[in-house]
């Protein structure tokens, strides 16, 4: 097994910026990981640092010079109490089972905040590991910046997600379709336990391993289940609940993950792995961006179904723990999985009611929502802007809102609102908190990434970040970010060459 030697740490060894490492995952059996250090890079330089996130983690990165921060976030200097590992996992990729693992990431360890919250600190793009297969272990700058921007936007949209603490360039090139600048992203996550982590143990028929992993996961993410009679069935139910809620939140803001393989679905319920993801502009349930998703498996409207399919793979790994009699275990697991569509529907409908300013539930609301969406689809109306327009006191001057079908729908919606005892102002407040003015539109993301990656110019990245991290504020200085792409600006595909 390949073990990188420990790099020279001296420059920041005694620089305590508040790390509190407690590496519980590394206390699991070595079946689940390989111990190794990041491969040092030639000339690391800071591209972007997330000071707000560092502050919330209790990390005083302001104490570091630019050079020290670059060494730290490149993995050239590893903090004293870190215990670097590459995690093993498997996964169903586009439906096919593969053994995977961190082929280009190193988990430095788990940092505890002052209030005791536990976060994985992971370097992505940190060099080859025993799980690299034919990969170079590295990452290109633009996709790492894309993950930084979109994950921070998702966080600001109140959607559970891993976050991004830093991006550094490596001073090395990576070969994709062309030579590109290399980079490393520091990812912060509730954990990196995936459905694929369970599939790895199940694939190797390590029943003891599955139990150890399930117990560990319960202790870390669902501690109230520890003393339950059948904690493993309840674990399945909880993960179903969190994923149903998560995917509903994605659809409510028009997010398309792009590569919902089981290795890219967390047990914590956080969004992870921003590869070919993008936000939808014009409403179309069949929107797909990923250049490698030829069949549209991961298209916008298929995401709930795929989540359920992935959860069924998770359930299969838990069968031996759920009940000693296999048929009984299957019946219990199937019951749980079959409940997904309804749980999902409850979350989505609740979210849609908020987007329409509805505090109460009426059966016809579903039809009201579906009619609006069908109208948006027919007119290729912009998803974000249409909902945001509803949240303004008077509809904006736009030809699309003078369409007879929309006028009829609008009148119906107004009648529905008037049946509530709450005031119209309260509805508007609810809507403004649930209909973002700004999403990271793909053409603006691409434009900012090109400037940074091709010209080393980060101005657009900072401007874009300022806008997308305040998505519910309709600030005049950010109004350009609300404009959908002109036909010539439309980005139809995002590429996986990360
Ligand atoms: P992803 O599509 O990023 O979720 O990655 C799927 C699998 O491929 C994971 O096991 C990654 O670690 C691995 N992988 C992706 N890119 C590379 C790379 N450049 N070098 C080594 N492994 C990689
Ligand atoms: Mg992945």
Structure description:
It is a single chain. The protein is α+β, with helices and mostly antiparallel strands. It is 40% helix and 13% strand. It has a domain at 25-195. Strands 2, 6, 7, 8, 9 and 10 form a six-stranded antiparallel sheet that branches. Strand 6 (105-112) and strand 7 form a beta hairpin. It is globular and about 65 Å long. The model has no long low-confidence stretch (mean pLDDT 95). It binds adenosine monophosphate (AMP) and magnesium ion. Adenosine monophosphate binds next to loops.
Keywords:
single chain, 498 residues, alpha+beta, 6-stranded antiparallel beta sheet, 15 helices, 40% helix, globular, binds adenosine monophosphate, binds magnesium ion
Radius of gyration: 23 Å
The distinct bound ligands, ions and cofactors come out as:
adenosine monophosphate, magnesium ion
Low-confidence stretches: none
Shape: globular
Q: What is the share of helical residues?
A: 25-40%
β-strand percent reads: 5-15%
User: Would you report the number of β strands?
Assistant: 12
Main pleated-sheet profile:
6 strands, antiparallel
Number of helices: 15
